[in-house]
Amino acid sequence: MTSIAIVGAGPQLGLAIARTFGSHGFDVALISRNRDKLDGLVGSLSAEGITATAFPADVLDRDALTQALKDAAAQFGGIDVLEYSPVGTFGVTALTAPATTDPSHVEFEMNFQLYGAIAATKAVLPPMREAGAGTLLYTTGAGSIWPDPRVANVNAAAAALRNWAMNLHKELADADTGVQAAHVGIDVSIGTAVIPGLPTARPEQISPLHWELHTTKRDQAELVFKL
């Protein structure tokens, strides 16, 4: 049996990715802070015949995140795919323009996006390399590629994660490890408009990109969803 761990699992893209992989026989480990919300997602997936389990952890707590991934690997006999896509909470996450950005605004986002992704990767990559197979997927808004000054601090951290993920792809490919690493850029708002002028899309329109990077496009370091 194969499994996917979704870090930052929520009712939009995380649930869509779970359904996409679950429909192909994957067991699903759902990781985010809120146990009640995770239990709701588990219930929805279970009703659809998908095996899913909640592993609550905050991506800002490196030890808890690492332990959640180890627990998921123990339950499912390993993690075949890691998908990392936590989203900050509106009202908590500050959105800043370049000239008004303080170091603390970027520091929080770097902890949330880049450092959390690195910690998650370190928890799952060694067994993937040993097995000679696995997939590491990192999802950000397309501001990581085409910056938007309305969300400069978020873009800065997302760009750092994108850069790191694409470097990881090259390192793993050059070493012929059998492990795929790739970035997914999303150039839309999911569900409802968050940034004025940005088009919206349903999460199930986006999740097939993750499946393609795991299956038919393992040579690609990046796919971008645009309308």
Name some characteristics of this structure:
seven-stranded parallel sheet, two-stranded parallel sheet, single chain, 6 helices, 227 residues, globular, alpha/beta
Spatial extent as radius of gyration: 16 Å
Using the alpha-carbon principal axes, give the shape: globular
With strands numbered from the N-terminus, the spatial order across the biggest sheet is: 3-2-1-4-5-6-9
Return the average pLDDT rounded to an integer.
Answer: 94
Number of E strands:
9
Largest sheet: 7 strands, parallel
- Oligomer class: single chain
Poorly predicted runs? none
Q: SSE order, as H and E?
A: EHEHEHEHEHEEEHE
List the SSEs and their pairings.
Blueprint: E1 3-7, H1 13-22, E2 27-31, H2 35-47, E3 52-54, H3 62-76, E4 81-84, H4 103-131, E5 134-141, H5 152-174, E6 179-186, E7 189-190, E8 200-201, H6 203-214, E9 222-225
Parallel strand pairs: 1-2, 1-4, 2-3, 4-5, 5-6, 6-9, 7-8
Characterise this structure.
- The protein has 227 residues and is α/β, with parallel strands linked by helices.
- 45% of the residues lie in helices and 18% in strands.
- It has six helices and nine strands.
- The protein has helices spanning 13-22, 35-47, 62-76, 103-131, 152-174, 203-214; strands at 3-7, 27-31, 52-54, 81-84, 134-141, 179-186, 189-190, 200-201, 222-225.
- The strands form two sheets. A seven-stranded parallel sheet has the order 3-2-1-4-5-6-9, with helices on both faces. Strands 7-8 form a two-stranded parallel ribbon.
- Helix 1 packs across helix 6, helix 3 runs parallel beside helix 4 and helix 4 runs parallel beside helix 5.
- The chain is globular.
- The chain starts with a strand and ends with a strand.
- The mean pLDDT is 94.
